[in-house]
Design a protein that fits this description.
Mean pLDDT: 87
Structural class: alpha+beta
Strand content: 15-25%
Length: 160
């Protein structure tokens, strides 16, 4: 009789243990599947971001080897070429005139100034400008002679 009770208790313990094992295995499998799905989503997002980065680099002097070679023959400074060009354009904001010479619009409130610049290649750049309330963008042509940059505004527009 004791043997029967002892065997029944062992069988009950084995059953409960196996049941817990199956539950834990199913939970781990579900967690693994969720993790795999998240990883697939993250992988797709990474591929999308890589594609966007590739498109953003398409028109950027830093990734344009031919344009860099042309400019390296004209520029002999220690600073990176695109930073040098960007800094030169931003320096034009210091001009004391009431209207910026490279921005073909008059502001009623304050002087328009350039904020950010993206050098597209060895001849062109795009920059945005503002007077604090009105924003705009301009396409400028530039040329470098040793350590001097000359700019010409080709086109500009305002966001109203």
């Amino acid at each position: 009789m004791y043997l029967f009770i002892f065997t029944a208790l062992i069988a009950l313990y084995q059953f409960k243990s196996a049941s817990n094992y199956v539950e834990n295995t199913q939970l781990a499998l579900a967690k693994y599947q969720e993790t795999a799905e998240e990883q697939i989503k993250v992988s797709a997002k990474v591929k999308s971001l890589e594609s966007q980065l590739e498109m953003a680099q398409l028109f950027d002097l830093k990734y344009n080897q031919e344009g860099l070679l042309v400019l390296e023959n004209q520029y002999e400074g220690p600073q990176e070429i695109s930073d040098f060009i960007s800094d030169a354009l931003i320096q034009t904001n210091i001009d004391k005139e009431s209207q910026h010479t490279l921005i073909p619009f008059k502001s009623k409130k304050a002087k328009f100034v350039f904020n950010s610049v993206k050098v597209l290649n060895h001849k062109w750049l795009i920059a945005n400008f503002t007077d604090g309330t009105i924003w705009g963008e301009a396409i400028l042509k530039f040329s470098i002679n040793k350590d001097q940059v000359n700019f010409t505004t080709e086109d500009a527009f305002l966001y109203r």
